[in-house]
Amino acid sequence: MPLVSAMMSLREALLAAVRSLLRGKSFLKALLAFWTASPVTPINSQDAGAKVNADPAADFLAEAEHLLLGFIEAGGLKRFSRKLKRQFKERLWSNTECMLPSYNSQLPTGRESGQYLALDVGGSTLRVALVELGGKGAEGAEGSIIRMDTFKIDSHVRNLRGARFFDWMAERIQQTVAKDSTRGHVPDVPLLMGLAWSFPIEQTSSKGGKLSVMGKGFLAHEGLVGQDLGDIIKSACQKQGLHVELSAIVNDSSAALLSEAYVTPSTRFSLVLGTGVNIAVHLPVNTIDQPKFGDRPSSWHEKASHVIVNTELGMFGHDILPLTKWDKLLKADHPRPDFQPLEQLVSGYYLGEICRLALLDAIASTGIFGGNVPPSLRTPYSLDTETLSLIEADTSPSLSDALQAFAARHPIPSYRPTTADMSFLRTLASHVTRRSASVVAASLHALWELKAEAERAMLASLPDPSGAFALETEAEIALASSKTTVAFNGSVIEQYPGYRARLQAFVDGLLAEDDGDGDLKKGSIALVEARESSLRGAAVALACLS
Ligand code: BGC
C-alpha cells in the first residue's frame, strides 16, 4: 500500500473509529477492523469506511435501539418505575402544578341518566355534542352521542392568544347550539354544559378552575393564567349572545376515568395518550397535601374518602428520563423545554419529531435515502406521528403502502426511496414508540403501586375500622389485588399499530417482576378502551352533580 494512500486510509479509519465511538462502539474494535483489512487490497477513503463499518445503516439502528431502549434492560424499567413513584409521592405533597385533586370524590353508580350538552377541547379538535346516558341496563347504557359537531384545531387556532382563542371557541359553540332544534335555546335560561379540558387546570369547584399554562403548542392561556376557566368561556359565549353555564369542568383524564367507571365499576385509572399524555387515578384523600384541595366546603371533605387526581403525568420525569441526543435536540428547540419532560418522550405531538431528528442524523451519517433529506423534513415537527403509524402498519415485504404514504407527504426531488430506506425508517419508528410504551407502562405501574400502598396506609390511619371510609378502603385494597381497569383513550394508544400490545406487555412484565414483593403482586392491570371518553365523561360529570 503506498504510504500516502495508507495515511489517508488510516485517517479515514480513525475518523470512522471516532464516529463509532460516539455511537457507543469500541474504538479499539473499529481500529482493529482497519488493521485486519487485507494489506494488499488498495483502500481508498470510501472503501475504508465500508470495511470498518460494513453496514452503517444497520449499525445506526443498533445504536438507536441501544440509546432509546437500553435503559429498560436488566431490571432498568422497574428501577425507572420506582424513581417515578418517588416523584409522584413528592408532588402529592409539594407541587401546585401537578397531582391535582378534582372535585370528583364519588365514582358514578352507572344509574345516572339524561341528555347532556358536552364540550371537548382537545389537542387537535373542539367538539360539541349532545350525549344521552341511558343508565344501568338500558340499551346503549354507556352513553350515546346523539349529535356532534367537530371543529379542527389547526396551528392557526393553536396560535390564537388569550381571549381570541375563546372567542373562536364560542363562535363554534354558538353555531352548534343554533342548529340544535332538540334544545331550542331560550336566552334567559342558561344552557348547562359539561366540559372536558385537555390541559392542566387547578380546580376550585366542580364547575370552575384556574386556567394554567397550556402545552401542545397552545397560546390561549397567554394573559389569562389564574383566571377562572368557566368564567372565561361564559363571557366569550355571552359575546355571541349565548347564555351558557359550565356546570362541570373536568380534565380529559378525569373524564376518561368517569366515563369508563360509569360502565365498568372496577375502573380506577385512566390513560390518555394522543397529542398529549396523562393519567388520572382514584386515590385516598389523605395521600394528598391539604393545601392542594384549596378552599373546599367542609361538606365535601366529610363525604370524600377518595378523589380522582389528575396527575399531569407529562410534567414528571425531571432528571430521571432516558434522554438521547435527539431528545436533547428537541428540548434545545422547545419554547418550554422543562414544562412537560415526560410528554416529550411519549406523546403523539413529539414521537414524529424525535423520529425526524434521528432520521436527519441517519441520512447524514449513513447515506440512507441516498443521502437526500426530503426538503419538507427540514421543518421542525413536519414528520407526523400519524405518518409513522401508516409506515408501521405496512407489514408487506415490499413496504409499498409505506413508501407511497411517505412519498406523498415528503417527496424528494430526483430520488425514489427504496424498500431498504423505508424498512430503516420503520425500524427507527418502532424503537421510538417502544420507548414511549415502556415509559408509559412504568408510569402506570408506579401509580398502581402508589395507590395500593396508599390504600393500606389509609386503612391503618382510620380510627373506626367499621366506618364507611374503612369499608370503602378495604374494597379498594381487594380490587387492587385482583383486577384494576385502566380506561384508555387517545389517537396514539387507539390507532398506532401495535402500541397497545407493547404497552400491555411492558405492564405485565413489570407486574411479573413484582413477584416476591408481598401481596401487591396478585393484581392484574387491564387496559380497556373508553371510546369518546371526553364527551361521555363530561356528560357523566354533569350527571353526577344532578
Ligand atoms: C395536558 C393534560 C392532558 C393531556 C392529555 C397534556 O398535555 O397537560 O392536561 O390531560 O395532555 O390530553
Automatic annotation (TrEMBL):
GO terms for cellular component: cytosol; mitochondrion. Residues 76-262 form the Hexokinase N-terminal domain. Keywords: ATP-binding, Glycolysis, Kinase, Nucleotide-binding, Transferase. One of its GO terms (biological process) is mannose metabolic process. It is an enzyme of class 2 (transferase). GO terms for molecular function: ATP binding; D-glucose binding; fructokinase activity; glucokinase activity; mannokinase activity. Residues 269-544 form the Hexokinase C-terminal domain. The keyword ATP-binding applies. Its EC number is 2.7.1.-. InterPro entries: ATPase_NBD, Hexokinase, Hexokinase_C, Hexokinase_N. Belongs to the hexokinase family. This is Phosphotransferase.
